[in-house]
Amino acid sequence: MAKQQEFLSDLWEHFPDILEDFQEHVKNQFMATIPREELPSVVKYAVNRLGARFVISVGTDRREKTGDYTISYVLAFDEDKKFLVLQSHLPPNDLTIGSVTPDVPAANWSEREARDLVGIVPVGHPDPRRLILPDDFPNNIHPLRREYEYNERFPSEPENAYSWKTAPDGMTVVPLGPFYPTLEEPACFRLYLDGEKVVGSDYRGFYNHRAVEKLGDSELNYNQIPFVAQQICGICGQVHSVAYCQAVEDACGIKVPMRAKYIRSILLELERLHSHLLWVGLAGHIIGFDTVLMQLWRIREPVMWLMERVTGNRKHYSSNLIGGVRFDITPESADDIRMVLDKVEEEFKAVYDAVVIDTTLMARLKGVGILTTEDAKAHGVVGPTARGSNVAIDCRVDHPYAAYAELDVQKQVQDGCDNWARTVVRLLEIFESIRLVRKALNDMPGGEIMAKIDHPLPAERIGLCSVEAARGECHHYVLTGEENRPYRWRVRAPTYQNLQAVACMIQGEQLADVPISIGSYDPCFSCTERVEAVDVNTNQLRIYTKDELDEMCRRKTWK
Amino acid sequence: MIGELCKKMFGKSLWLFHTNCGACNGCDIEVIDVLTPYYDVERFGMRLVGSPRHADALVVSGSVTRQVAPALKRLYNATPDPKVVIAVGSCAVGGNIWFDTYNVLGGADKVIPVNVYIPGCPPRPEAIIYGAALALGIVPKKVAPRREQHLPPGFNLDEYLKEWQGEPVVTRS
Amino acid sequence: MFKAKLKEAVICLGAGRVTLPYPFEPSEVPPKFRGKIEFDSRKCIGCGGCANVCPPRCIVIEDMGEVARITFHLDRCIQCARCYEVCPENAIWPTEQFETATPDKSDLKSEMIIWMSSCQRCGRCFETDNAIDRFQSKRWRGRGPGRANKHGIFPTKPPIDFTTRKSLVRESEDKA
């Protein structure tokens, strides 16, 4: 058995003699194979006693190779800067695992997803409803299993309709749609109201499930996947593509040239810059300051033009391949970047100075949307949402990737736990990003931008990579395979983890504060187009359109 | 010339209802970007409205997934005639990289009839303005299919294909 | 509070009018911009490197003995320019064209038919430095539905039988 690590010594003392296998497959990334009966208790102990953070769970169909399935729980030890994967083998005739969700709420959606897509049933899960697949999908088909082709047209079974949480007694529910009040589809958010106060909520999303993971392990090859990854999200494209590329590079031992790492870091920080500027504008729009929206998006536009000049596209930079980057940042491009940054910083400084002394804004945001530190840790929340609640995690420092080990990143942490704290974190991060890009441009070494890959990539290697997106930690898990493509590729976007904590944040809020509270998480806003509100006193169901909610939000500002 | 163009545009203002049918949000942000000061389509009378009942044009982004397809159909029916459907981005036009996966139908025209296609990933805001102008009939279109052949002189393609008995060997489709 | 509003007003008024003159004047694109893809059938050698790397699988090659039909489904092109990167003959490249809106989707489907002369073998010409790109993927040029060729660019058995082809080059030389 491999040498056991000090940060885990407490864990193995508590659970002696359960390790079937232990290896460090990549530096600072460990995998422990344990029996499936022990897996839930080990995960609970690690998260609740040792301070580990739940990242994702991955279910894999390994019947082609080993005749069974595996379930892997990825935990992050942020202070020790290490990842631990706890893996168990499951026999095909008994695909169950004890659910950890009752004690680790952060695992809620991951376990439901493993059930939907692979068929691994979490026994004892408090909410075993369908999560990812559409309502009319057949019950017993799990698309990520290897016997299904990625392009099969599965039949439609409309009787598997989604069921909302139990409503208060005597309620008749009229389903209302995500596009318009009278259409019959499940809405995105459903709130239970007492007058104007929120007493409960429910969420149904994932209507943009595009089967990216299935494409990655059955049809595309290693170098096509960075392009699929970048199209997963329009604002975090570079993040996904760097995370995937680095996971594969670490797994296969490919040395990426330092210059390529710096170029990746520069593009990542520029992406964070435009994303935060976009968010500040959007937050202003939600509260009712449309001038903030227009002015900030005006300030942001030169960054988009800059990216078009440097990379060829405003959003999907298409810059990464396994082994490096496709194009270089020439000295002219570097000067261009510096000029645009100077202009943006000067204009944004004026906005920042106006915003931080604006008492109307503070009155709307302070004390609203409270997410306590305990809740943030329990739900495994990441990014500015966590840092605004005094949870000091940032992947650039905790699990360095690209060139961040050389760049000295300052974590921006606030302890207000409310919307205002999250706003301040993002405002300060804009200045931090500008500083980091300038430093990276100055320190960037010369040399190659692409590693030479002379031999096929080895199979059966595992790689993990966490990248700090503008919204939080984006995590990719890759198990390499034969056939020039991964055997399993798992993607976890930051909003996936953060949205699970929305319910406890909006509990007890006024309805008019809900849009800005949800907005302060910076979700992809396709998730929050419509809100359903149920008044528990009168048993009436009312749908609020986005415009009506915005109006309500603004009226409160002017009161 | 500019005056005439302005008059034409002001005379046919479009109210747009934007819907996201499973997109990455890249095109959605570009659609909102055309309202910002640098591109400003509001000077042409185009604005986003909150309800399809008030809309003249339906702007669809995203490769339509199984989940949203029925809702999109009902949305189309809820919009009053005359209406224009604009598919923005490679996802809505052709389904992008995931056009044939198990959960994606592959473009807006698999569900509703589309009047104008604006490809690009994401299309530039100028390309979206151009597409809107095309929908209004103000500018001519600039793309056409190309069918080229590069064969030796004297080679008769039709005869060859008639004689050739085999099955074509096809790469990915 | 009033000070904040004053500052915000100054920002707005200070910016002035910034609206771009498009569509009344054309819009320039930067040199690296990746717009609509164009090809040149005179340069293409039918190696299929572009089809091998295209992520949305826009490029489809049909081998019919001596001719190959290459179809470009530009409706789902993501303009990544990978085809341009791997083409050994610079026969395909991204242009500056971004005004590609059309009411008719068939405008976005182009094709070319090229004659494959007898000295060419499928895949042999497609040489890159990168071992990942050299590998041909699932369903590539008829090598079975599920498994890529393990031997990369040197297949043990070519998919098309070249022995029965007429050699037009030799015939024309004889006639000359």
3D architecture notes:
The complex is a heterotrimer of chains A (559), B (173) and C (176). Chain A has helices at 9-14, 39-48, 108-117, 212-218, 225-232, 237-252, 258-287, 290-311, 331-356, 359-365, 373-378, 384-387, 395-398, 419-443, 494-498, 502-506, 514-519, 546-558, and strands at residues 21-26, 29-33, 53-62, 68-77, 82-90, 96-98, 121-123, 189-194, 197-203, 320-321, 324-325, 462-468, 473-480, 486-492, 531-535, 540-544. Chain A has 559 residues and is an alpha+beta fold. In chain A, the strands form five sheets. In chain A, strands 1-2-5-4-3 form a five-stranded mixed beta sheet. A four-stranded mixed beta sheet of chain A has the order 9-8-15-16. In chain A, α5 (225-232) packs antiparallel against α6 and α7 runs antiparallel to α14 (419-443). Residues 170-187 and 525-530 of chain A have low confidence and may be disordered. Chain B has helices at residues 2-11, 26-33, 69-78, 89-94, 125-136, 157-163; strands at 15-20, 47-48, 57-61, 84-88, 116-118, 147-150, 169-170. Chain C has helices spanning 2-15, 49-53, 82-86, 131-134, 168-175, and strands at residues 37-39, 59-64, 67-73, 92-94, 109-115. The model of chain C is unreliable at 144-176 (pLDDT under 50). Chains B and C meet through α4, β5, α5, β6 and α6 of B and β2, β3 and β5 of C.
Strand content of chain A: 15-25%
Name the chain pair whose interface involves the most residues: B-C, 58 and 65 residues
Question: Structural class from helices and strands of chain A?
Answer: alpha+beta
What are the secondary-structure elements of chain B, in order, as H or E? HEHEEHEHEHEHE
How big a fraction of the residues of chain B is strand? 15-25%
Oligomerization category of the chains in this entry: heterotrimer
